[in-house]
Design goal:
The chain is mostly helical and 180 residues long. It is built from 7 helices and no strands.
């Protein structure tokens, strides 16, 4: 019974490999923009983070609902709420924005680790999802502990985080695709 359940779950995860790929590509684009446009203004940063969170949330919800994964659906809701907060409150101070980014990254990281633990019997490379989760948590904790770094310097940290996180998810997406 359990092996049939695992086989069914593996099939569902493999069919939705593109969700991981899409999330990784969105994160890579964010990371590249942070490095290629270092003089970005706070308003642009707010918009960029909002778009990234919103797009990531939609992709996570789509994958979660289709695959019946509550973690992915919940991650999507958290990401969309973070994105909406940046759109509806554009006058946020740099400090508040930093905390929104930090707590979003920590929540994502925790939920990615939970998903990696659940997927360990189903896919190979689940450690990559766990690693992405640990990177998210480390990034969020760093931002919470160093809020005085300033909004512009956080762009570089966000860029590095987004590139590593995105590359990790792209690799995992292609590994999951190979299960099909």
């Amino acid at each position: 019974m359990e092996s049939r359940l695992i086989g069914g779950l593996r099939h569902v995860v493999a069919r939705h490999w593109w969700v991981l790929l899409l999330r990784g590509i969105v994160a890579i684009v964010l990371g590249l923009m942070a490095f290629l446009v270092p003089g970005i203004t706070l308003a642009s940063l707010i918009l960029l983070i909002g778009v990234c969170c919103f797009a990531d949330g939609i992709a996570a919800i789509a994958g979660g609902l289709r695959g019946h994964f509550w973690q992915s659906t919940f991650m999507g809701v958290v990401s969309i709420l973070a994105g909406l907060a940046t759109f509806f409150y554009p006058g946020l101070t740099a400090m508040v924005l930093l905390y929104v980014i930090a707590f979003w990254a920590i929540a994502r990281g925790i939920l990615d680790i939970i998903a990696a633990i659940e997927f360990r019997k189903v896919i190979e490379g689940e450690l990559l999802l766990g690693l992405a989760g640990l990177l998210s948590i480390a990034f969020g904790v760093f931002v919470v502990l160093n809020p005085g770094a300033g909004a512009l310097s956080i762009v570089w940290l966000l860029g590095a985080y987004a590139l590593v996180f995105g590359i990790t998810l792209v690799i995992l997406g292609f590994r999951v695709k190979s299960l099909a």
